[in-house]
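Q: Structure tokens for this one, please.
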Amino acid sequence: MSGQSSGVYEATGNQTSNGIVPKVGRVYSFSLALSANTSAPVDLKPLANLHRIDNVQGVFIANSAGTAQLQVSTSAGATLKIPAQYQGVMPLYLSADNVLTFSGAGTVTVTLLNFPTPAMVWPTEGSGTVQVSGTVSVQDAQVEASLAVLQPQVTPVSRTIAATVAASSKPLMAANAARRYLLIQSAWNAATTSFSGIWLNMLGGAASVGGADCEYLGAGVIYESGEYVNTNAINYFDPVGGLVLTAMEG
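A: Here is the predicted structure, written as tokens:
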């Protein structure tokens, strides 16, 4: 066994896992060259006696270079298994004799931890093979329906007025309960090559200059619906007349 450590270790003489989260995390790493059909016992007691690490509670094992499944048997009766070309972390609770027995093939890196860890195993990046057969469904009908409401796909339909009627409330578009999108652009004056402001009543009532429930869409301004879309009938009032009023809904 070969190993390296760093930092100042504070061995307490307690050579069993006590389940307490330490104030300072400690680690100790070593590597093993394993041969098939053989076992390699590792006695951890000298590590605590040499102030390397004590109160071992978890372990990181890299079997990335291994050619066979790695099996780790603890003196507490637990057995940990890491497939070839995998690595992982897992809890490791030791009894007083602190002996681990490794069996596998290839070079294995082991890092002892003095703090609790979850149990998880993952393939080494760039190695291993994941095979999937049959059909894997990644759709949920309820989720798809919710997304369809939140992010509807619409095809806009033109409601553009080619030549507005002057000084009179006129319909721009009828009420539409299925409307999910709305865009209205202030009127375009081809004669002056400029935009002109226009009055809108988006509640279905008559449109007029400064009238009740009327909104003024200033020159060059575009109204575009957001999360909530007005489904009412919309009427316009153009003081000038003969202008292009661009509008669309979907």
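A few notes: The chain has a mean pLDDT of 82. The radius of gyration is 37 Å.
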